[in-house]
From TrEMBL:
Family statement drawn from the similarity comment of this UniProt entry: Belongs to the glycosyl hydrolase 43 family.
Xref: InterPro entries: GH43_arabinanases (IPR050727), Glyco_hydro_43 (IPR006710), Glyco_hydro_beta-prop_sf (IPR023296)
Protein name: Glycoside hydrolase family 43 protein
Gene3D superfamilies: Glycosyl hydrolase domain, family 43
Length: 295
């Protein structure tokens, strides 16, 4: 068994399976996810969010898979009796993109639904997440990379019922600088001039009430990597989206998500600190209070 503090992971995503009395933990698990060939994604399981079994190999690329590097931020969602993984990959000469994979159970193995990513092929994209609207229709919500557009963007794109195809065109939700708390960041690349821009990372959609729709998402704030909250004025994915003035989690942590624990308590998962190889999964009890989230 491993203690939570023993697990190096970025972008933690927790799937409770009540019928098993277990939690499954996914995330960016390559030791150095920034460079070199990607190995895959591991999953851990636990009864109490503190002691964990694993790692188990949830995904390993098979021959012919297009992704080579930057295996980032897998999320797993239960949809129509299956488990679907939304994860980001990149390869030389190809844009970073989110691919959708599927498995019969939470341990995998997860395999691609199709031979191409769900995000637009000429866009640099990452951190796709599943959103199901009030009509029961699925969408992928994803980030368009600041490295391509400078001011990172958030988009939604409708999916077919089996999640294998996209439907229509992407809908822009907002840009990073619409949030007052966001600060610029610098990407230092060897042999290249520094690139400065504004990050959009890690969207996660949730409804605190029937006609409300909120989004957790991450960027860089005044005290480092941080996480803010956006709210849809219409309660629908198309928005318009309003940004809270201050980040919800402000210092050296982010890429969060929410889940109900096995006792029904709302719980926040994120990684902290934001430096490799020290990142660890962290969990907080949260509640909706005063029109926002409170730790």
């Amino acid at each position: 068994m491993l203690h939570r503090s023993d697990i190096q992971i970025r972008d933690p995503f927790v799937v409770p399976v009540p019928e098993e009395g277990l939690y499954y933990l996914y995330g960016t698990t390559d030791r150095n996810a920034w460079s070199g060939p990607g190995i895959g994604f591991d999953v851990y399981r636990s009864r109490d969010l503190e002691q964990w079994e694993g790692p188990f190999p949830a995904f390993r690329p098979e021959a012919g898979f297009w992704g080579i590097e930057n295996f980032w931020a897998p999320e797993v969602h239960r949809w129509r009796g299956m488990y679907y993984m939304f994860a980001s990959f990149k390869a030389p000469g190809r844009r970073r993109a989110t691919q959708i994979l599927a498995a019969d159970g939470p341990l995998g193995p997860f395999r691609p639904l199709s031979d191409r990513p769900a995000t637009p092929p000429d866009w640099e994209c990452l951190d796709g997440t599943l959103y199901v609207d009030r009509q029961g229709e699925p969408w992928i919500v994803f980030c368009r990379e600041w490295l391509q557009v400078t001011d990172g963007e958030m988009y939604a794109l409708r999916l077919s019922g089996d999640l294998a195809e996209t439907v229509g065109k992407p809908v822009k939700l907002f840009s990073a600088t619409e949030a007052p708390w966001v600060r610029s960041t610098v990407y230092e690349a060897e042999g290249q001039p520094d690139v400065r821009g504004y990050v959009t990372d890690g969207p996660f959609l949730f409804r605190p009430a029937e006609r409300e729709l909120w989004m957790l998402w991450s960027s860089h704030g005044a005290e480092g990597y941080a996480m803010g909250i956006a709210m849809s004025a219409s309660g629908e994915i198309e928005g318009p989206w309003m940004q809270e003035a201050l980040p919800f989690f402000r210092r050296d942590g982010g890429h969060g998500m929410l889940f109900a624990d096995l006792e029904g308590r709302l719980t926040l998962a994120l990684h902290c600190p934001n430096r490799t190889p020290d990142e660890r999964p962290v969990f907080f009890r949260v509640k909706t209070e005063g029109g926002t989230l409170a730790l």
